[in-house]
Amino acid sequence: NGKDVAMANRYILWDLAWNIFLENKWLGIGWGGYSELYDTYGIARLINERDGLNAHNVFLQLLCETGIIGTFVVLFVVLYSLFKSVKFLKMNKKSEYFTPMCFSVGIQLFFIMMFFSSNALYDFFVFCPYSIAIGIAIACFFDKKANMRVIMIGE
């Protein structure tokens, strides 16, 4: 069954990423290093060459490539932007920012869900919408700040 083979391949990739992480816990092997190292461990002959280019799990790949420190930094930025976006959305339920912020939060949540099954950080078609969603959130935030200044000056 093709589905069983695909999952078996992912288990191999996850195991490799975890073992590399255990050997390089704090700083990892460097951004993009997983795709260069997987063949060193003899994985390329076991699985489809294309599948081995990433671990198909962002958390494991981050741990492997950036270690505990880098993983913390990346996850902090992603989760902080989501937290701030949700907070802004809640405070602006009846404003012009509600629809774009709903879109932004939805894309951010999708991006985080993709961490478990793909490598959203390396997939252009996932990372690009995420970048746009962050841009929308930032634009709404700064537009609201600018509008608040205009109101305060006008009084």
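^ that was protein a. below is b, sequence first then the tokens
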Amino acid sequence: PAAAKEAGARLADPSAAISVLWLRRSLTFTVCLMENLMAAGDDAYGADASIASEGGGESMTALLSKDTVLDALNDAYESLRPYHGWLAQKSFGLFVGAAPRYDDVLAMVGPGLGDADRNAVVRADMGVYTETGRALIAALEDLYCELGLEDIRKV
């Protein structure tokens, strides 16, 4: 994408091209966030974060605090920061301050699952999402680079 960034495309806004560009950036943010949360779980429990589901020790959600979610969000935001002006950056800061705790996030994305299964099921789904998302992001980056469509203006 470096060659496309040097070209400095200026896409029409609104347009399908700018919509797909921001869709890719949003997907990158979401994939980074999920990878960060999964890595935090790995750090808390080692490579097998499913131990919390097996009734061993402290629950995963107890170890992954709100600060963990904040750190994961802030780290993932680095993928968007270059494209955000001052106002968008400050707005994100407000959004991060209202972030829920990790167990609340799990309850939202895994409703109807018992506490023992929720973490394992959600982590498995996040793994599939991040793997598939990374492939899609790479394909879109290659396409935009090839076509010279990388618009790096800030919003």
